[in-house]
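Sequence and fold
=================
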Amino acid sequence: MRGLWLTSVFGLVLLLGIPVLFVTGLLSYAAYNPGLSPVNDTTPDKGLLGFYLFSWPTRPSWLYRVTQGVHVTLGIVLVPVLLAKLWSVVPKLFSWPPVRSAGHALERLSLLTLVGGGLFEFATGVLNVQLDYAFPGSFYPLHFYGAWILMAAFVVHVALRLPRMVRSLRSRDLRTELRTPLSGTRPEPPDETGLVSPRPAAPTMSRRGALAMVGTGSFALLVVTAGQSIGGPLRASALLAPHGRDPGRGPNGFQINKTAAAAGVRARDIGPGWQLVVRGASGREAVLTRQQLLRLPHHGAALPIACVEGWSTPDQRWEGVRLTDLAALVGHPDRPPRVLVESVQRHAAFGRAVLSARQVRDPRSLLALRVNGADLSPDHGYPARIIVPGAPGVHNTKWVGRLAFGETV
């Protein structure tokens, strides 16, 4: 079956899919608003690679849910295609001599970087989804830099091979190949690529069988993954998504990314003695108990939670105090600035986050005290948590102990 046509078919799928993965990945990084503060900057040495960063919007509220859901789901769905593509070019990976000219050296280098970068990006992405921060403190820079290296090699490879791929795709009719059974399968004509064996064995699978096998594998992965982002009845089918399945019943019966125990939150940290410290840029400070917060004007917002692992919740009905109202208590009644949010958690990632002024000023941005008509559970951030439209789930900080308006570190 090996030959330039089959390789080109798999390559065309990756040609369409990998740029989407790259763009949605860059958008995911932008959603963390790394330019606001070192607290948010998970890749501090990005340099010129952060040229595209922009202030992440709060509308539509489901934006991050869609972009990150596409990123994770598409990445998993493309795994069978990537493996099939690598299988189809195995002879080229071990061709001899390894370098025949300067142009061939560039091609081989781009191929090595492409294969290595592709395997690295897909492997680290899948591990992070399955294991939750598989590389503590290092996943984001590894994945970020790996993506840029992969795309550089991808662009070079496409520039070198696109004309040949187009000619190859035109050399055979896809519909004809999909109607050709095993008995009619013949080797492709030998050419300079060296993919076609000079002494091919009898086929054990047709090309349509190979395409069907890869397509079925991708579709199966779509079925057992996409439900974590789509929700509804499909959520039960998300067998490969750790957060995709039904987390329980009741008002607090929706997904979480870390429990109170995993974050080191002790009973005394969120017990009756808990207080929220709110500080303004001028030094003005307010210390509020949960009962005092409950007496402040309350507002509601229907917002989802979406996380970097690709899972998301449907809209939950949150109730609490607007961040703008808390800013007004400490001297920012009109145009409140950004805010540093600190959790009482003792360990685990993202115990602090900086929200932009745009996020603070959105009327749906709350210090939430209740959800779906009930008090927050400890695992969902009791006694108080942040909920902000369109933000990554880890920036919806739980177990909040301090809000510092105008502060960044």
Q: What stands out?
A: The radius of gyration is 26 Å. Residues 178 and 212 are 9 Å apart (CA to CA). The first helix runs from residue 4 to 31. Residues 267-405 form a domain with the Sulfite Oxidase; Chain A, domain 2 fold (CATH 3.90.420.10).
